Amino acid sequence: MKKSLFLFFIFTISGFIFSIQAKNPYKQIESIDSVSFFYKWKPSVFAKKDSPLMLLLKIKNENEHSVNVIFTVDYFWQAKRQASSDEKQICIKPMKSKKGRIGKLGFDTGSLTNEQILSDDFIVEITGINIEKTDYCIKDKSK
Asked: Domain segments of the chain: what residues?
């Protein structure tokens, strides 16, 4: 009986999480050398809709080899750069992707408000992209 209740609980939670993610899919922003960049906005505090928005990226490697990807995220408001992320480096195995906070691809927007981010005057750009073929990815132990 306990096992059945536990399985029911796990399936219910999983279905809830998948339905939430389906309502806000990632949108493609860039594709270079069979590496695609996608983004979406999420509240920075889970289940608190009025918290500052956070940019979540998804990077998909469609190559047959691992790649090191180096890039910067720039935020533009009314055609002026307002903020930039630090340079980010990430290794992605062949035919795999990394995304969101778990993949260390969540970015703070600095002092920009949610209204600015959601307006038509706001643009996100992935800049300084450098993609290098590598034989393998070294596991990051700094978690």
From this structure: 26-134
Distance of alpha carbon 123 from alpha carbon 55, whole angstroms: 12
CATH code of the region 26-134: 2.60.40
- For residue range 26-82, what is the model confidence (pLDDT) as tens digits? 999 999 999 999 999 999 888 788 899 999 999 999 999 999 999 999 999 999 999
Containing 35, the helix (H) or strand (E) segment is: strand 35-43
Residue 77, Cβ density class (10 Å: 0-12 exposed, 13-18 middle, ≥19 buried): middle
Whole-prediction pTM:
0.79
Residue 18, Cβ density class (10 Å: 0-12 exposed, 13-18 middle, ≥19 buried): exposed
Looking up tokens 């034989």, which residue turns up? 135
